[in-house]
Design goal:
By secondary structure, this protein is of the alpha+beta class. It has one domain (about 15-205). Helix content is about 25%, strand content about 30%. The chain has helices spanning about 5, 35-45, 110-115, 120-130, 180-190, 195-200; strands at about 15-25, 45-50, 50-60, 60-65, 75-80, 85-90, 95, 105, 135-140, 150, 160, 170, 175. The strands form 2 sheets. Strands 1, 2, 3, 4, 5, 6, 9, 12 and 13 form a 9-stranded antiparallel beta sheet that branches. A hairpin with a 5-residue loop joins strand 7 (about 95) and strand 8. The longest helix is centred in the middle third of the chain and has 12 residues, at about 120-130.
């Protein structure tokens, strides 16, 4: 199943963080199973960036969790489990004008949220839906053309950096996880730091990532 098949509702333009967690060995999910109520309750515990899942619906063979909408009625967050037990997370990244009129966003808004909740997500997806793994985590940034991101440099100052990409999409390195939370988080942090490496941030490791 592709991203276009799981996007639901009306979204703003601008940067989005997308995470896809799929079983390496293959797995099936039944949105009409007897234990679906428990799965729904677990989905509602997940916070995507700054939005909780407030409503969960069954759409065809998928389970879709919809986050709180903004003041314009636009979607801010979505989570989906498809019929292959793949978990999709889509979050609208907050952005705005910064120094010299630059449109910017901060990677920490989704990095911190994801790492803080990784054990909850791992317990639901990897241990339960994927029968203990291994699982593959793919992360992407969409619609980032025209935007820069904020990072702290070695001298302690915050600066804006451009991601070199032509199509507005940045793809993080794949991460294979097995439900060992500490080891998995180390791999995820290494993958997340790739964004700063590509943009030339020195150092590419941000201090806040190892706190979670």
């Amino acid at each position: 199943m592709e991203l276009k098949d799981v996007v639901y509702g009306d979204w703003h333009g601008g940067p989005k963080w997308i995470c896809k967690i799929q079983s390496v060995s293959g797995s099936k999910f039944n949105a009409h199973s007897d234990d679906i109520v428990e799965v729904i309750e677990n989905l509602k515990k997940i916070k995507i960036i700054n939005s909780y899942i407030s409503n969960v619906i069954v759409k065809d063979t998928m389970l879709i969790g919809i986050g709180d909408r903004d003041v314009f009625g636009k979607e801010k967050a979505l989570i989906c489990i498809d019929n292959e037990s793949t978990l999709w997370i889509i979050g609208q990244i907050p952005n705005g004008y910064w120094r010299y009129g630059k449109l910017v966003w901060w990677p920490g808004c989704y990095e911190v949220s994801f790492l803080r909740q990784y054990k909850l997500i791992s317990d639901l997806v990897i241990k339960r839906l994927h029968n203990g793994g291994p699982s593959c985590i793919s992360m992407f940034l969409h619609n980032i053309n025209g935007y820069e991101f904020i990072a702290r440099t070695g001298c302690g100052n915050e600066s804006a950096f451009t991601i070199p990409c032509e199509d507005g999409i940045f793809t993080y390195p794949l991460v294979i996880v097995d439900g060992n939370v500490d080891d998995d988080k180390t791999k995820l942090v290494n993958s997340l730091n790739k964004l700063r490496m590509v943009a030339g941030v020195q150092p590419s490791e941000q201090f806040y990532l190892n706190q979670y």
